[in-house]
Amino acid sequence: MKRRARLKVTLLAGGVGAARLLRGLVSLVDPEDLTVVVNVGDDDEFYGLHVSPDIDTIVYTLAGLAPRDRGWGIRGDGRRVISQLETFYGPSWFALGDRDLATHIYRTDRLRRGARLSDCTREIAEALGVRVRVLPATDDRLRTMLETEEGTLAFQSYLVKRRGRPLVRSVRYDGATTAKPAPGVLAAIAGADALLIAPSNPFVSIGPMLAMAELRQAVAKRRIRAVAVSPLIGGAAVKGPLAAMLAAMGRSVDVGEIAKIYRELVATLVVAPGDLVSKEARPAEAPSSTEPRMVEHDILLDSVAAARKLSAFMIALAAGPPGGQARSRT
Fold it and tell me: Which CATH number goes with the domain that contains 100?
């Protein structure tokens, strides 16, 4: 695929996996042709500030500020403010760097003055020199809540404070029935030559977006141009609690289960080499199947080069002839 292909590409994104894919995707698609629709289900409030972890991870990555090793926050950020806050509030369990706090202060101030989350996100991205369009999935309140063995937990409390230890019985999305896609989201999905779903946890990163009926229907209408990446490799998650969540909910921990989750939404699911050997992970026999066909490709995003290769492969699958096969590169 040629660099800077003039194709409209929309990415549904959440978490570090999406940020890692973006490191390669931005080298293939012109900024004005790329839209990233980001999960807001794990937004939360700390010290009276509205924090949007997934939006900030995406914006900081696109701005070249995110550390390569952990993916979130700002590279080299200090802890002087949070250390002083701990003097008053006690030990903190959610990391907020000094420069990162400036983002949250600005966002909270703008929201309290009547701005929409999408307005704040655009302003923050522009101020940091990001040319790619970054859209929150919704401007409305939408929160991921986990029913666990220890009771109901908001996502950040589960993942960060409890380190993903409680067994998850089910997931719900508070506000999903009334939340509306943010301005530009539906148009970005409808107008995409390639609609991509990042290798993110389908329950807590992609699920909140798809829980909104209008957004889910928009994706389903573009199914023929939609490609997702499995967040599992060899039955394990590269990062995060997905494998444990699947097992605790009585689901299979394999790519066959991921294919079921994306049934009727994507035409193709890209999986790691060797992951089609399990009996639950057979490719769909016919293009009209409601479950996606599965193709193998290296999906471990351990370098920018790997992210670029996977991005090019996904775009070729999504934007090519319907039912066509992109050549797998492992």
Answer: 3.40.50.10680
Classified as helix, coil or strand, 169 is: strand
Q: For residue 248, is it within any domain?
A: yes
For residue 1, pLDDT over 70 is answered with no
Domain-embedded: residue 175: yes
Give long-range contacts, CB 8 A cutoff, 24+ apart: 94-98. 94/44, 94/46, 94/51, 94/156, 94/160, 94/161, 96/46, 96/47, 96/51, 97/73
Asked whether residue 119 is assigned to any structural domain, the reply reads yes
Q: Decide: 54 and 40 in contact? Cβ < 8 Å.
A: yes
321 CB neighbour count, 10 Å cutoff: 6
Task: Report the C-alpha gap between 134 and 38 in whole angstroms.
Answer: 7
Report in angstroms the alpha-carbon separations of 291 from 228, 262, 285, 287.
Answer: 12, 7, 10, 9
Q: Are 197 and 226 in contact (CB under 8 A)?
A: yes
269 forms beta bridges with 228, 294
Banded model confidence at residue 245, pLDDT cuts 50, 70, 90: very high
Question: Residue 235: how many CB atoms within 10 A of its CB?
Answer: 17
Count: domains in the chain = 1
For residue range 248-259, what is the model confidence (pLDDT) as tens digits? 999 999 999 999
Structural domain for 298, as ranges: 9-319
Of the candidates 180, 189, 182, 174, the residue with the CA atom closest to the CA atom of residue 116: 182
Tell me the residue type at 221: K
CA distances from 159 to 22, 45, 93 (A): 23, 15, 11
- Looking at residue 329, the DSSP 8-state letter turns out to be -
Which residues fall within 8 angstroms of residue 86, CB to CB, at 6 or more apart?
Answer: 92
Side chain identity, residue 273: P
Joined tokens for residue 325: 């096969």
> Residue 50 CB: number of other CB atoms within 10 A?
18
